[in-house]
Design goal:
Elements: H1 7-25, H2 34-48, H3 54-70, H4 76-84, H5 87-97, H6 102-118
Helix pairs in contact: 1-2, 2-3, 3-4, 3-5, 3-6, 5-6
């Protein structure tokens, strides 16, 4: 895909991605888990339009998805959705880093695996109250 030449369209796409990033990170729409997938795909479009490098896009996606999935203050469901959507940016980043910095790609994979190991497969049940 060629770079966007319309500055207004490019700015609107970057602004949309930033808003989606905030919605994902703060779980502002927990009833709409598809927002996480949209966030990832808008990032891919930004890369294809050459508004940001692939390295910038996928590192940003991974940082946000990892931080969100690790945030115990957010609902378990939302955290698990973020973890489910981490594979595409992780694979793309790993392929981008494979030639130049393979150890960095391995570090990202290890961070994701640690989080997968830490996040329970099902939500924790709260204990019944006294009284």
């Amino acid at each position: 895909m060629p770079p966007l030449t319309d500055r207004a369209a490019a700015a609107a796409l970057l602004d949309r991605w930033q808003r989606l990033q905030l919605q994902v990170r703060c779980a502002l729409a927990p009833d709409h888990p598809g927002i996480v997938r949209i966030y990832v795909h808008v990032g891919l479009r930004i890369e294809r339009c050459r508004l940001r490098t692939g390295l910038e896009v996928h590192q940003r996606l991974l940082r946000n998805l990892l931080a969100t999935a690790a945030d115990e203050g957010l609902p378990w469901f939302w955290r698990s959705i973020c973890l489910e959507n981490i594979d595409l940016p992780l694979a793309r980043l790993h392929s981008l880093l494979a030639l130049h910095d393979p150890s960095s790609g391995d570090a990202w994979e290890q961070a994701v695996q640690r989080l997968r190991d830490a996040l329970p497969a099902t939500p924790a049940r709260s204990s019944p109250g006294c009284g």
